[in-house]
Write a structure and sequence with these properties.
By secondary structure, the protein is of the alpha+beta class. Helices cover 19% and strands 42% of the residues.
Length: 91
């Protein structure tokens, strides 16, 4: 059981440090999720961003409008430009 306790502690540590950088894509996370990767930049899956402009939801009920800044359909990645409000990016 010591191995499982170590894994549980590691998962909790990652969730605690990454959690504030996680955002919802679409109203009320309707399309999926993403992560803040820098000031004003959110990384998500391309299929979440296919509509051009999307809502980006942060913890604490803050939602802003974002615009697809770049998309790689083959790589299934997209970058959304949005007011990240000082949210710490994923390390």
């Amino acid at each position: 059981m010591a191995g499982l306790d170590g894994i549980a502690a590691a998962v909790q540590a990652v969730a605690g440090s990454a959690g504030p950088a996680v955002v919802g894509i679409g109203q009320a996370w309707a399309l999926g999720s993403g992560v803040v990767i820098g000031e004003g930049l959110v990384l998500t899956n391309a299929h979440n961003a296919g509509r051009g402009d999307v809502a980006v939801s942060f913890g604490g009920d803050r939602t802003v409008e974002g615009h697809v800044a770049g998309i790689d359909v083959d790589g299934e990645l997209a970058v959304i430009a949005a007011d990240t409000g000082g949210a710490a990016p994923l390390e």
